Amino acid sequence: MCGIVGYTGSGEAYPILIKGLKRLEYRGYDSSGVALMNGKLGVHKCKGKVADLEAHVGANDTSGSAGIGHTRWATHGEPNDINAHPHCSMSGELVLIHNGIIENYDSIKRELVKRGYVFESDTDTEVLVNLIEEVKKNEKCSLSEAVRKSLNEVIGAYAIVVMSKSEPGVLVAARKSSPLVIGLGKGEFYIASDATPIVEYTKNVVYLEDGQIAELKPGEEMRLFNIKNQSVTPYIQELELQLEQLEKGGYEHFMLKEIYEQPRSVLDSMRGRILIDKGIVQLGGMAEYEQKLINADRIIFVACGTSWHAGLVGEYLIEDLARISVEVEYASEFRYRNPIITEKDVVIAISQSGETADTLAALELAKSKGATILGICNVVGSSIARVTHGGSYTHAGPEIGVASTKAFTSQVTVLSLLALMLAQKKGTIQRRRYQELLVELSSIPDKIETALEANTLIEIISAKFQNARNFLYLGRGYCFPVALEGALKLKEISYIHAEGYPAAEMKHGPIALIDEEMPVVVIATQGPSYEKVVSNIQEVKARKGVIIAIVTEGDKMVKEMADYTIEIPKIAECFSPLLASIPLQLLAYHIAVMRECNVDQPRNLAKSVTVE
Ligand code: G6P
Predict the structure, then answer these.
(1) Residues with Cβ within 8 Å of residue 209, at least 6 apart in sequence
(2) Backbone angles phi, psi at 546, to 5 degrees
(3) Could you tell me the pTM of the whole model?
């Protein structure tokens, strides 16, 4: 993962780099660093977050109108000062930042060692910068040419930016399988892993494609070419992103802001896609593939983490409403297990970032086997969005908290729309039910608003359980994925061990763990399996487990049994994940805050996982 930024122009680079790194910290925060060109080359880097870097830099000279910066999620080498980026070549002539992994770094390193190179760090990045130096020295070529030639020898994934002392002000950037965006200012350029550090300065951007290299000189046009040295015309796009979307807006944490944004983000996911009066659901980017989807042997969702949980909800929705066979796969398993994929399959990637390396690779595998590949992504212009035949954006807006909240409910919203669209086209749903479900789905934003009103109660409950060592989350049917997602949220940000389980499966294992120390969160909303869930609650109570139940408003039976109940509004069962997940997000949030955990940047995690 890692976040990278760069600037060259007539302004001061350092403040732009620091601000940019803070925006990209969601991509990793093991260490950070900057390199500034100012006649000489200044490199400042250290273990820890960007705030630690600022303290480390202190009153040192940070002048320079060209610079690069990096925030790291460690792959090769532990997070320490030496392994922090930027990395200089042995002579100190070149400096480089890198997001990705150079797979053949070991063989290149051995070759360079033979030629007298000495390495300070354990990183693959230091190998790459020295390879470029060696090529530049031997070929007596420009920096951009040395980068191009070197990258022809490299196997792996990279987004890199390089500077050379001998070409002051010039930045050379390249990408393969890791994202890179270039912002075009007036005589100046901005580079970043995504558009968030750039939007403040310019709306005109170029997303680099795999195998492309950009040479950026202040006051000149950007020069874009590919690894085979063919010139490419840059495709300039206008950013839709707004700066306010990237600020906390008065909330203590981005995660809380994003939880509270859900009435709006879910509405944005539906906007223009449901025409209740006409009884129409339209998903523009999927329309062309409607027949493919309806006639597919299987729809296969590939995803990771929270997006995989959304995929599970999608499976329940599409099988239930549209009667099309669905499989949900962890992208990392799917791609390595020699799966059977045919031209009659439709493979849909679900990804907030649109950059998750395993999900991207799973899609490429499916594409190579002739399947139609579609995407449900949040980040516009992301790699997955670009590689797919078609798809739908979730339009949740930027999600900055590492733990996904609004992206999940937006994914489930788009999947609900997809299921309804397919059901209607395939004729597997009665007109009346279809109309009812359209109305129900449209009511979700208001009902999320109501569900959020339980915040104070959830805070009180959180205080009681903040020191618990384990949690169990149980759900059935549509709410089984919600149980998984609730447990994931808690472990991600509070570091309390939590397991999500299908409620009926509890008796095949987890029941052995239940005692008076074990809080059990049960999603016991109204639906066909309500009575069965009630029996599962009895089983927990019989073993002195403590029950926190999520119930439908007006519930009586569970209220009598549970130790704590949190109500959500009544909703059609198939849309219950959209409401039931809200209190679980708040529960995880408050517990994490009470445990003084870093809610927005939990340890060891990153938001965009661009390594396999
Ligand atoms: C990381 C994030 C999760 C996310 C998962 C998949 O683990 O921390 O929040 O669900 O990656 O990411 P994607 O961007 O593909 O949805």
Answers:
(1) 175, 232, 386
(2) -100, 125
(3) 0.82
pLDDT, average across residues 480-494: 97
Task: Give the C-alpha separation, 438 to 342, whole Å.
Answer: 33
Token couple for 439: 């109305």
CB 545 within 8 A of CB 515: yes
**DSSP line for 312-340:** HHHHHHIIIII---EEEEEHHHHTTS---
Is 609's C-beta closer than 6 angstroms to any atom of ligand 1?
A: yes
Residues in contact with 556: Cβ distance below 8 Å, sequence separation at least 6, in sequence order = none
Take residue 427 and report the two structure tokens written for it: 């004729």
What is the total residue count of the chain? 612
Query: In Å, how far from its chain's centre is CA 182?
Result: 20
The atom of ligand 1 lying closest to the CA of 306 is 10
Q: Is 530 helix (H, G, I), strand (E, B) or coil?
A: helix
349 Cα nearest atom in ligand 1: 15
The Å distance, Cα 89 to ligand 1 centre, comes to 34
| 352 CA to centre of ligand 1 in angstroms | 7
Query: Is 525 near ligand 1, meaning CB less than 6 Å away?
Result: no
Per-residue pLDDT tens digits for 383-438:
899 899 999 999 999 999 999 999 999 999 999 999 999 999 999 999 999 999 99
Q: In this predicted model, what pLDDT tens digit does every residue of 162-195 receive, in sequence order?
A: 999 999 999 999 999 888 999 999 999 999 998 9
| Cβ atoms 458, 493 nearer than 8 A | no
Largest CA distance in the chain: 80
The alpha carbon of 308 and the centre of ligand 1 are apart by a number of angstroms equal to 9
